[in-house]
Amino acid sequence: MLRWTIILLIVAIVAGILGFGGIAGAAAGIAKILFFIFLVLFVISLIGRITRK
Predict the structure, then answer these.
(1) pLDDT band at residue 1, thresholds of 50, 70 and 90?
(2) Which residues fall in a coiled-coil region (predicted)?
(3) How far is CA 10 from CA 40, 41, 46, 51, in A?
């Protein structure tokens, strides 16, 4: 999932440089959502690992 976040972030940056505002906004929005999902899953896995010890 982190891979998709990075890919969409790169697409958003390239689209922003080329002036495609709508595409850049959509890609950045999707990348932001995927980033937060990844962050939540990472925190959950850390908590799970700490509680197993």
Answers:
(1) low
(2) none
(3) 22, 22, 28, 36
Tokens 């958003």 -> residue: 12
Residue 6 lies in a domain: yes
Percent of the chain at pLDDT > 70 equals 94
The total of structural domains in the chain comes to 1
Q: Taking a C-beta distance cutoff of 8 angstroms, is the pair 28, 36 a contact?
A: no
| Its pTM surpasses 0.70 | no
Q: Using CA atoms, how far apart are residues 20 and 28, in angstroms rounded to an integer?
A: 12
| Residue 33 reports pLDDT greater than 70 | yes
Residue 16 lies in a domain: yes
- Domain of 35 in residue numbering reads as 2-46
